[in-house]
Amino acid sequence: MDWEPLAAAKASISPYDLLFQALALIPFSHYFFAASFLFLIFLYSFLEIHFLQDLLTLFRGDPVTLNYNSCSELAQSVVANCKILQGRYLATPWLSSPHLQTAFLSFLGRPPPLTYRRHLFRAFDGGTIALDWLTYTDVVGGTSCMLDSSAALKGDKTPIVIVIPGLTSDSAAAYVKHLAFNLARQGWNVVVSNHRGLGGVSLTSDCCYNAGWTEDLRKIIDHIRCEYPEAPLYAVGTSIGANILVKYLGEDGANTPLVGAAAICSPWDLLICDRFINRRPMQKLYDRALTVGLQGYAQLHQSILSRLANWEGIEKSSSLRDFDNHATRVLRKFETVDTYYRRSSSTNYVENVSVPLLCVSALDDPVCTSEAIPWDECRLNENIILATTPHGGHLAFYEGITASSIWWVRVVNEFFGVLRTSPHIEGRKKMQGSTMPKPLQSSIDQAPYLNVMEDGMVTAMSNEQTDAFVEDISNEHTTHSNKDEGTISDKGTSVDLTDKLNPEKQIMQQVEQNVKDLIVPVQGRIDKLSRRSRQSIWLLVYIAVITTWPFVGSVLLSVLKRRFKTFKPGTLFRK
């Protein structure tokens, strides 16, 4: 009888009340430790930290994956002599995350102290490009002020490395300083080609740079080649600069004066990267950060961009795609943003690269996804070596306990050093020394004149052929380029005096040469197609016969019936 009131009391108590009473007995510190542990698990996954993975491998690092054409003697010899590419990469333990590495590069970076020597290059359309030079004497002798003399002597054979920074980056970026300092310390002459409107230089024309604009790089390379004809030229592109560099190498092919190049963390396919950077919350943070950087660039040149582009849309842009829609697409007169991304992607030009090219990418790059890497195209090209690492972030690749060095900087330094002494490059240097190359004007953004490429593609050229010139800010004078002053003969013969005195004859010869330059590539392309498509032609003939036979057969049958309407077979046997 005494159990009944007790059972009734228990039935009136809610099980949730009992649960809360039990939870209240647990100390608050235990809840704090549990919440901290769950937060660390979330943070470890959200930031893609790989510290435990490195710990399990005893911090041995991950091997570098190399993709290249196994039939290429150049690639095999270069890879055999590049010990860093054959080794492993281990990220700094306290930066074991692509996001931590990228953020550390952007906010701290630990760049070495250096001072450039600046020269201003005036482009054909009136635009100004800042060229920042750094040489061995600048690094060894300490920082120095701007000097009146050029960064390299005219007859100096010291190789020159041209650096193309990334989006909204210039020569003051930490990774650019790391690269320039290490190359200059090894005896290279380094020149950083800042994009238009960057490096503390104002826009002086209505032309702005973008991810596919290669004309500025082409003019800079031609100018340096003309100024220092004895010096071998190399180039390094980073991020968007790598996309511009690879696109330029594919456009000019064997006509480029460069003897070697390196593309670091290239986006390759801008359309894929655009989809990727808007896929996850972390990538959207990068998208927003890059958009703010571009809006800051636009604010610096508001007087020009507000007149040429949709300024209200630029101010309200919340993503790179919005900015490109209101600014880049309008400035370069693209139909859509996707059209701009497709035409500016360097992946379309990989197969035409004709110089040794080292491509370095991290598979965990939070900005330029590995999904856009053209694996097969790079493997088919005998001049390309693609090196990928599981970790590294975007342009970071910090290594060592103190994060004092960048791995890809050492790789580029070693790669160029191997190319410099490679016997495969000597023939190319001699060939370039014998004739001054004249690169094809192949940018689609430059109108309205036509240029026919070797592959039969018709593109736009510049309106006028205006000589570029360089302005030294320390001397405040201009020196005109003299690459168009003389005429180079392929056979080395002298020019007849009668031709000099007869301008009409020279004009006619120039017109004939221009017509020949237009006809020969197209004719060669047609001949190549005719040789390779005989089977396709016969297949087309077969398809044409099959598809038109119902109509042709009915017509032929009606004609035969009318023709032999009065025909009688018995008449054949009559005598």
Automatic annotation (TrEMBL):
Biased composition (Basic and acidic residues): 477-488
Ranges of residues in domain Serine aminopeptidase S33: 159-372
UniProt keyword list: Membrane, Transmembrane, Transmembrane helix
Record-linked SUPFAM superfamilies: alpha/beta-Hydrolases
The protein, known as: Serine aminopeptidase S33 domain-containing protein
Keyword Transmembrane in annotation: yes
GO MF assignments: monoacylglycerol lipase activity; short-chain carboxylesterase activity
Chain ranges passing through the membrane: 20-47, 537-560
Disordered: region residues: 477-496
Keyword Membrane attached: yes
One Pfam family of this chain: Hydrolase_4
Assigned protein family: Belongs to the AB hydrolase superfamily. AB hydrolase 4 family.
InterPro entries in the cross-refs: AB_hydrolase_4_sf, AB_hydrolase_fold, Hydrolase_4
